[in-house]
Amino acid sequence: VGGKPEVKSNYDLLRKLKADISTAFPSLSVEDLSELVPNKEELNVVKIYAHKGDAVTLYVLHKNPVLFELEKCLYPTVYTLWRYPHVLPTFTTWPPVLQKLAGGADLMLPGVVVPLSGIPEVKKGDCCAVKVVSNRAPMAVGTATMSSAEMRSLGMKGRGVSVLHTYMDSLWAFGDKSGPPSIPDVDTEGVEATYEEEEEEEDDDEATEGSEEEPCPNRVPDAPCPGIQELSLADREEGEHGKEEGEDPEDLRSPQEQMDALLLQCFLQALKSKVKKSELPLLTSSFLRIHMFSCCPSGKQLDIKKSSYKKLSKFLQCMQQQHSLVRVKELSKGVESIVEVDWKNPELRSFRTPKDPGIEEASVEVGRAEGEKPYHPPEITTLYSVSSRLEPLFQDAKKRKGTVLQPAEVRAIITDYVKRNELVDENNKNYVIINPILCDCLLEKSEYQEVEALKWDDLFSRTLYKMQHCHQLVFPGQPPIVKKGHIEPIDISVASRGSNKKVTMIKNLEVYGLDPMAVSVALQHRVQASSALNPVPGSKDRVLVQIQGNQVQQVCKLLLDKYQIPCKYIQGLDNKVQKPGRKK
């Protein structure tokens, strides 16, 4: 998710927004409405684009999105629903289902818990919320795919709620990332007790049958399975084994636990296949940026902040104290380095590198599908079009106004014209005598009485200057594309956001056949910073890539080295971060 504040609060905006909220959510009282949208507080309107390209408008108060508008319909975020849980009709489900909803799934009716009071009454398309048993705080927002009567008539089968936004998704992460409050739910207390008793009975049955330990089913995300409370190689291998048998144990883990496992996998793979003894001591920041990130599997992104460790130093401390894999030392104040690796550690020696490690270059190969040809830069040729003023000069060559010519063709036509009309100066063949046609076509009015002859080079350069500039693009396997004017360069600029934040913006990628989304993903993997696609003002079919920080140097490397774009077609190379020089 990416975007930028576009409109600040004003009276008209607040009045219209309050009217829309009151219409969409009539259960909100006047006091609730004033508290949700205060008159004297600053409200920011942020326009973002979802992964599918849908335009979404966010209303942000105190750095938290409180409402979002999609296709002219207003929806509350989980931050708002936690303050006013009664606003929407709410369906109840089991805690493990929440992880699937956060992963992009819709709420299926077999997963709905029906309390004694029954399911809420909704019509098809109504906005509704989803909560888990024992807690009234909603965890997801969506629309009903059918009416309550239809749900009951179908025996609670099929898709019930089309989910738009959940706790732990990108919209939630746009805010302060606070957790849901615990609001007791009287309606489902008995249901939860029954559910727990059934779980205990199932566990007892499995224990008496002597079955092997399996990933814990249907656990609440806040209570991790015993098999993944501590990171170990054996736990990860068991998970892979279960995956081969058609199970998906990773779905039963919270996003934080999944990130912990991914962190360990990348750490072990980096030690085993990337780091050499000759590199030690190795800066911990370099180890993460150069080695661990490149080991991240395709389709996943390594983010330490989403793990239970939060910081690289804490993770490496765990690897040193509990696993005895590395030794980390502070060689200089505030700078840690890996000074020793236990290459004989059983956990490291038994680690097997995944078959599809998803190396950076493979995972971001221009975002292309399997079997698709890699990107090749177009051949760019400068052309010239015959203008109305120069048409008499090209008339003998039968080139009319608008005819597009190569520079060599222009030179040949002008040379032929001069020789056919015997305009070469007999005393000095480096000069061409100006006749009336050349005078009208190439000279300025102030030169009519002064200039009687021109050098050949001056004649050619004046001719090209008076013609209309064009350019031709030839992509491999495609017919040439001719357009008027000079080709627009890829524009790289750096802008300030706030007091000390900068963003890098890249425009005109489409001109060179580059997919902005692919470039955005490639940069995101290279610099491990958030990126977004925003529309270019005044253009309907172009977007710009925006990435956090001054990343001009990395953008240049990507365009020059990977995509082979010539340097002359890149504008803004001088915006690189300048390293301070030595004082003399």
TrEMBL record:
PROSITE patterns: PUA, SUI1, SWIB_MDM2
Cross-referenced Gene3D superfamilies: 3.10.400.20, SUI1-like domain (3.30.780.10)
Compositionally biased tracts (Basic and acidic residues): 233-244
Xref: Pfam families: Pre-PUA (PF17832), PUA_elF2D (PF26292), SUI1 (PF01253), SWIB_eIF2D (PF26291), WHD_eIF2D (PF25304)
Feature: compositional bias, Acidic residues: 186-215
Region of interest (Disordered), ranges: 176-255
Domain spans labelled SUI1: 490-563
Record's GO cellular component terms: cytoplasm
Family stated for the protein in its record: Belongs to the eIF2D family.
NCBIfam families in UniProt: unchar_dom_2 (TIGR00451)
Name used for this protein in its record: Eukaryotic translation initiation factor 2D
Organism in which the protein naturally occurs: Oncorhynchus mykiss
Gene of this entry: eif2d
